[in-house]
Amino acid sequence: MQLPLPLPELAQIASTLPGPEDRIYVNRSLRLDQVQWVGFDMDYTLAIYHQDQMDRLSIEATCKKLCERGYPETLVGMHYRTDFPIRGLLVDRKLGNVIKMDRFKYVKRAYHGMRELSREERRQAYHTRRLRPASGRYHWVDSLYALSEVTVYSAAIEALEATGEHVDPEQLFTDVRECIDLSHRDGSILNAITSDLERFVFRDPALGQTLHQLRSAGKKLFVLTNSYPEYTERMMEYLFADQLGGRNYRSWRGYFDLVVTAAAKPSFFAHEGPMMRVAKPTDLPDAWTPHTGPGNREHTYAAGSVHALQEMLGCSPDEVLYVGDHIYGDVLRAKKSSAWRTMLILQEMDVELQANSELEHSIARLDGLLEIRNQLLDDLREHQAVVRQLQRRKEAEGLPAAFEAERVRHRRAVDRLRQRLKAIEHEYDELEAGVDHRFHPFWGSLFKAGPETSAFGNQVEGYAELYTARVSNLRFYSPSHYFHSPRDRMPHELTF
Ligand SMILES: [Mg+2]
User: Fold this and answer.
1) Rounded CA gap, 417 and 149, in Å?
2) Cα(444) to centroid of ligand 1, in Å?
3) Longest CA–CA separation in the chain, Å
4) What is the 49 CA–ligand 1 centroid distance (Å)?
5) Is 452 among the domain residues?
6) Which of 69, 293, 329, 406 has the most CB within a 10 Å radius?
7) Domain boundary among 142, 161, 186
8) How far away, in angstroms, is 99 Cα from ligand 1 center?
9) What is the pTM of this model?
10) How many structural domains compose the chain?
11) Banded model confidence at residue 331, pLDDT cuts 50, 70, 90
């Protein structure tokens, strides 16, 4: 007998697939029903900061401190653009450049100050020998928190060089980093945030519902943050202030079974250290006391290591899903040192997805142009080889008339192909510049570098098992959802 179509279950699944901005993307398959504990980083994961406001705060505090160190006063009022940097860039301390690489560590774009380097300048600086990003010369910009360093650094190079000031790029970068760290340590930045949370932090109204949905399915939740207890307390209170109620959620703590602060990730994943108990959020580290045994949901913990925390969780490491925004500190380090499963929060996804959908036809045209160009190049090389062969013979022994006609025919084909190639390359360059500019005015797409995956995209692919724009996208999936990764294909498999 014919089954009635469509199958009601299938229709339901198809209609519940969230829209692209709400979706969770999968690099490695993961069964949510096998996850017992879900851990969350706080800053830029549960708490989403208004990037422009945060950057301005940090840049202004940093510039003031740079001037106190003897840099010219012009830095305080200098022009800067908070939308200049993106994640995944590399600062070249030696030359004072900021660069973007593809996954083969080939530099595809570079700026000195706010000036883009020409192809030839890039070639001379980076393409004649192998680039070693892990060497002390380079600094990875891998979190949203670090973007303001690049804004200050590039704007300062631009401003200082414009006034004829001698700039030591290495020293300037060290000073920028130290001044930013100092602004955090002396409270200039944190105090400004906690005194006006509304200005700096976006409160996701669906956060409580998302966490409740996970808890209702029997999952336990923890917080693992580098922030100190007092700041964590203030921030979490604010984030959940309008999402409390009922017997279970009298305070934000109702959502979590364990809270670990001052974790010092990434070294949290690599080193051993005792878990500490914090009696009062305002207590400083010397008042913390060592803790062993299971955790208490009413208490706040600090420091520790992944092994110490694992003992408190009391499950197998592959039953932990950790959600964070820092590709190195939360995801890459966690994957390298433990069997935790990982989900990366990428705020930039919304802009990337929007641009991808608007540019669908242009991106398809770029792929088509690349294919045509490669075919033309192959044809060109064949004709050139014949021309060269006949030319050599002509010079050595002269050519019979029939061969001479053949040589002229190939010669003309070469000219024709060259003209077509020029036109195709021109169209490709124009179209690519437009596409890149739509993604980001300075650097193009976060995940791509020309036709290749960017170095950052490569890290996301390699270490983040899941990635999505925000924590609350989890609410669109059942707590027993099976996240399937798309089947990987190598280039030779795409031939058929
Ligand atoms: Mg974070």
Assistant:
1) 48
2) 24
3) 100
4) 10
5) no
6) 329
7) 186
8) 23
9) 0.90
10) 3
11) confident
